[in-house]
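Why do we care about 3D structure at all? Because function follows from shape, and shape follows, mostly, from sequence. That is the central idea of this module. The next example makes it concrete: a single protein chain, its amino acid sequence, and then its structure expressed as tokens.
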Amino acid sequence: MRSVCVFCGSNTGREAIYAEATRALAREMVKRGIRIVFGGGNIGLMGVLAEAALEAGGTVIGVAPRALLEREVVHTGLTKLHVVGTMHERKALMAELSDAFIALPGGLGTLDELFEMLTWNQLGFQRKPCGALDVADYFSGLGAFLVHAVRERFLKEEHRAMLIVERDAKRLLDRLAAEPLPKVSKWIGPKPV
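And the structure:
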């Protein structure tokens, strides 16, 4: 794992533990020589992630749509910043630049990005590990929902198992690097645009 994309919120959340966990993850990734790819923002946990990684001497690659650049919410001190036209292009480029994905606490955008990467794995467009850092049980409800979706036969267990959830950043990174993705059916349809 040389490059990991981190999806996270444009807010810092209610509790200080979210920013603390974000800093700890950034420092651990830099310590392991892992390049960070993220949404390019300078606000919320995105800003915390970028600053912590840069302060630790890491490589941080941002991918931001032009509209966010124009609204001045993009971090301008990154190792490299890719400016794209749309959110779809943003996700595609972040996926291309990354060997794995981690979701930190965040809102709809974070969940959208995480679930798109899981879906691409499910359909066979890619085979890259996806994880969530469960800070203060932030993702526990999501995990319960996915178990419910399996029970109700809207999701296969092998697809639910593609999301690795850990409370400790070191353990999550270890599992992302070590665990093979569950075997899923190979998609035979057209590749996404």
